[in-house]
Design brief:
81% helix; 0% strand; 16 helices
């Protein structure tokens, strides 16, 4: 029996002249690079600025907090004024904030600059999700997201490796300088090659009455919650490793800083594997079954991690294996969850993407704060958090899907 390959998809004819998929990948890569490129520098930041790990953790937590809150504004703005102008302003802010991060003389200003950086980054992610809905047929959008996610995985795969070497060779400021250069290139690509894709602008999208009506429509939809909730918890599960892996690997398990990037890249290769599997699972079994499979893998990875840590295993290989499985599960969950959260709302794609992203970032903020506050020099807090989230993902898929089936006519 011949192996099944996912079908290739193309944008709608009016956008065939533009490199839409390439631009979407570039936008989406900014978020993981904004967090992963400087992960190897987190222990060093605590030393350089003479602050505890929990304070350094705010450079991550405040980023996701600002990112989440901004999505509630960026989405409706793009629904009203268009994707292109909102993206141009957002990327310009990102470039400026990245330069401020690189020049920050103390931890307080670094945290503030990261807050601004998140506001700019948010526009790229929200617009990328909305453009998928604008420029591709609804039946093709989930495969587009899965394909983009495969390319997206290169950012968290290679970013920590590059960040580790930048930290060893030049110090923590080099990572933010690299982000400044990269985002400037993305901004130039938008100016030169991105057309406006929002042909159904909603003049009421930012009016209070229209905004509340759109929020009510999206938040009142069971289809939205059945995808957004497990997707947010799945993102929280990988964020536990994003925020905690450098602490446990470098400080607890004594992995050399220059090797951290390779360790993290191995874990992220699970995400790439998951996105490739997702494309094949969707083609063979459909989106709903794919999400059930991914959520089951999330539960298994979290439970095994906690069981082995409770049994006394404390080795870098265990952390890498748990990260690989958790991120692999997210690679299966994320394309289905993201597509299912936005596709039902063609007129409110930006608003739906913003609400979904705000939920993702709210969960990530709670998880990142919990990881920093609970760090005690062992693997147990991280394992407990990972297991709890794995169970939450599994349960949310079963419970929300059951509700939809129960109310279906």
């Amino acid at each position: 029996m011949m192996a099944q390959h996912p079908p290739q998809v193309a944008p709608l004819p009016e956008y065939a002249h533009a490199p839409i998929l390439l631009l979407i990948c570039g936008f989406l890569m900014l978020q993981p690079l904004s967090t992963d490129l400087y992960l190897a520098s987190l222990p060093s930041l605590a030393t350089v600025f003479n602050v505890p790990a929990s304070t350094v953790q705010l450079t991550l937590s405040m980023f996701v907090l600002a990112f989440g809150g901004a999505q509630l504004v960026v989405g409706p703005l793009s629904d009203r004024y268009g994707r292109r102008p909102v993206l141009l302003w957002g990327l310009s802010l990102y470039v400026l904030a990245s330069v401020l991060c690189a020049l920050a003389p103390n931890i307080e200003l670094l945290i503030a600059a990261r807050f601004l950086q998140a506001l700019g980054c948010c526009s790229a992610i929200i617009i990328a999700r909305a453009i998928v809905r604008d420029a591709y047929a609804p039946a093709d959008s989930v495969l587009v997201i899965a394909r983009a996610s495969t390319w997206l995985s290169l950012a968290p795969l290679l970013g920590p490796i590059l960040g580790s070497y930048l930290q060893v060779a030049f110090g923590w400021r080099a990572a933010f300088l690299a982000l400044s250069i990269l985002s400037s290139c993305v901004l130039a690509a938008v100016v030169l090659r991105l057309p406006e894709t929002n042909v159904h602008k909603d003049p009421r999208a930012t009016e209070l009455r229209g905004l509340l009506a759109n929020y009510k429509l999206v938040l009142g939809s069971r289809a939205f919650w059945s995808h957004a909730l497990p997707g947010a918890l799945s993102y929280g599960a990988i964020f536990a490793f994003i925020s905690g892996s450098s602490l446990v690997l470098i400080r607890v398990l004594n992995v050399p800083t220059e090797w951290f990037g390779y360790c993290f890249a191995f874990g992220v290769s699970g995400y790439m594997t998951g996105t490739i599997a997702c494309r094949r699972l969707i083609s063979r079994f459909g989106a709903d079954a794919t999400l059930r499979i991914g959520s089951a893998l999330s539960l298994v990875s979290g439970a095994l991690f906690l069981a082995l840590v409770a049994a006394g295993v404390a080795h870098w290989a265990l952390v890498l294996a748990a990260m690989f499985l958790t991120m692999g599960a997210h690679g299966v969950n994320f394309p289905v969850a993201q597509n299912g959260s936005v596709t039902p709302f063609p007129q409110q794609a930006g608003t739906a993407a913003g609400l979904m992203g705000a939920l993702y970032m709210s969960v990530a903020f709670v998880v990142g704060t919990a990881v920093g506050a609970s760090f005690d020099g062992t693997l147990l807090p991280l394992a407990l958090i990972a297991c709890t989230l794995g169970f939450g993902i599994f349960a949310s898929v079963r419970l929300t899907r059951r509700k939809i089936v129960a109310v279906a006519p």
